[in-house]
Design goal:
About 50% of the residues lie in helices and about 15% in strands. The protein is α+β, with helices and mostly antiparallel strands and about 425 residues long. It folds into three domains: about 10-100, Butyryl-Coa Dehydrogenase, subunit A, domain 1 (Orthogonal Bundle), CATH 1.10.540; about 125-250, Butyryl-CoA Dehydrogenase, subunit A, domain 2 (Beta Barrel); about 265-405, Butyryl-CoA Dehydrogenase, subunit A, domain 3 (Up-down Bundle), CATH 1.20.140. The strands form two sheets. The protein has a four-stranded antiparallel beta sheet. Strands 1-4-5 form a three-stranded mixed beta sheet. Strand 2 (about 150-155) and strand 3 (about 160-170) form a beta hairpin. Helix 3 (about 75-95) packs across helix 9 and helix 11 runs antiparallel to helix 14 (about 395-405). The longest helix has 30 residues, at about 265-290. It is globular, with a radius of gyration of 21 Å. It binds flavin-adenine dinucleotide. The site of flavin-adenine dinucleotide has 22 residues, from strand 1, strand 3 and helix 14.
């Protein structure tokens, strides 16, 4: 049965994380927005010390047999969405800067073998702060992930990678600031289309791998977004994510790509949760401002008796709540080992749209104050937009929803 209420434990955890967000993130939020490429090192170290070993990110699909401490199904992924919402309520750029296995870890969890999970993820519970990233996007494409041009050629017991990746979140931190790694999507056979695309783990310190640029951005400015060039980068054969036998069998060739795509089923609810956090920050701020101005929201009045402002504010809250329920559902399904491809895209598209609309409206309601850098609202508006772009844009996620509901393949509806 679906329960729409968080457990008492989960509520306790949410409140504790909210305090961390309020007390440690909000005070430095503006500073690291303005000083775009400065690392919030002390804060990162503190977050690593308290969170290492437990993935802030949820860690992806759950084995059906996995149980929480009380014998009930795991709440790992629902817990992650709750955590991410609170951290992003504090500051979404800082949340994305927490040393963590992040997107790269999600890819290993979704597509890696048991041995690979151990080899690549264990380091995130020990030693110094580390990051992992996932590099799909290239100068020649973003949405059409089947257009990967980076190549991987087998040479004896190594893969040799060549290509350019852009807009890779935490790419610089993973490769040059820590003992992390980047999961790189590359094709082993361009003529095979999607079936030729595989995910490879490229470790820090691999010769031939260079971070050529860290982007200046509109929002989430504390997050690092890197361009990476791979020139004859040699990696071990078993850094190809997934079972070597499956990859070797031509009949199963497309499984590699499907495995890599499954990463999104875990990461889209996480992005949706981050969108919720930013949106809620804006709604909370407006609620307080209205209260201080003596404006009451009459939830119980019929629409024709409500003011335009009341209707706008109630709609802001409703959009976020709808997105939250979709997000929890997608994570809840992951916690039960259920396929959530449709639900992951649903929550991501709804939350990405909701946060852009809600933050716009919040700035509008507060007028010049909303636009001023005196308060964080204008920053939240800038931070919001990325949730409508990365991990599949709004349009691409709606396309996936349509395909799943109508039963079309990606060839039939694109
Ligand atoms: C800050 C930031 C961080 C990022 N982090 C990562 C990362 O860690 N790893 C990574 O690999 N990538 C990352 N990206 C890249 C991101 O995933 C891409 O920008 C995104 O997939 C869109 O690709 P694109 O920019 O090439 O846009 P395009 O694919 O060129 O799309 C442009 C516009 O056309 C629309 N469009 C495209 N195709 C269709 C269609 N078939 N139907 C309808 N509309 C369509 C899109 O929705 C979009 O509005 C990041 C980007 C940013 C800005």
């Amino acid at each position: 049965m679906i329960d729409f209420e968080l457990s008492a434990d989960m509520k306790g955890m949410r409140d504790m994380i909210n305090q961390v967000a309020e007390q440690t993130m909000r005070p430095i939020s503006r500073q690291f927005d303005e000083e775009e490429h400065t690392e919030p090192s002390d804060w990162q170290k503190m977050m690593w010390d308290v969170s290492k070993g437990s993935s802030v990110f949820g860690g992806g699909p759950t084995d059906k047999k996995e149980r929480s401490g009380n014998g009930k199904p795991s709440e790992r992924n629902v817990g992650a969405t709750v955590t991410i919402e609170e951290l992003s309520w504090g500051d979404a750029g800082l949340y994305l800067s927490i040393p963590n296995a992040g997107l790269g870890g999600a890819a290993v969890a979704a597509a890696g073998t048991t041995e690979q999970k151990k080899r690549f993820l264990q380091r995130f519970s020990e030693g110094d702060p580390k990051w992992a990233a996932m590099a799909i996007t290239e100068p020649g494409f973003g949405s059409d992930s089947a257009a990967v041009a980076t190549t991987a050629v087998r040479d004896g017991d190594q893969w040799v990678l060549n290509g350019t990746k852009i807009f890779c979140t935490s790419g610089h931190r993973a490769l040059e600031k820590s003992e992390g790694f980047v999961v790189v999507w590359a094709t082993v056979d361009k003529s095979a289309g999607r079936a030729g695309i595989k995910a490879f783990v490229v470790d820090h310190g691999t010769p031939g791998v260079t971070v050529t640029k860290v982007e200046d951005k509109l929002g989430i400015r504390c997050s690092d977004t890197a361009a990476i060039v791979l020139e004859d980068a040699r990696i071990p054969l078993d850094n190809l994510l997934g079972d070597a036998e499956v990859h070797a069998d031509p009949a199963d060739a497309s499984k590699g790509f499907k495995g890599a795509m499954a990463t999104f089923d875990a990461t889209r609810p996480a992005v949706a949760a981050s969108a919720l956090g930013i949106g809620r920050a804006a709604v909370d701020f407006v609620r307080t401002a209205l209260k201080e101005a003596g404006v009451e929201i009459h939830y119980d009045r019929p629409p024709m008796k409500q003011t335009a402002l009341e209707r706008d504010f109630i709609a802001m809250e409703a959009h976020l709540q709808a997105a939250r329920l979709l997000t929890w559902r997608a994570a809840w399904m992951m916690d039960r080992g259920m396929k959530n491809n449709l639900e992951a895209s649903m929550c991501k598209s709804k939350a990405g749209l909701a946060v852009t609309q809600v933050t716009q409206k919040a700035v509008e309601i507060l007028g010049p104050l909303g636009y001023s850098r005196k308060i964080l609202l204008e920053k939240w508006l800038r931070d919001a937009k990325i949730n409508d772009i990365f991990e599949g844009t709004q349009q691409i996620n709606l396309l996936i929803v349509a395909r799943r509901i109508l039963g079309y393949s990606s060839k039939e509806l694109n």
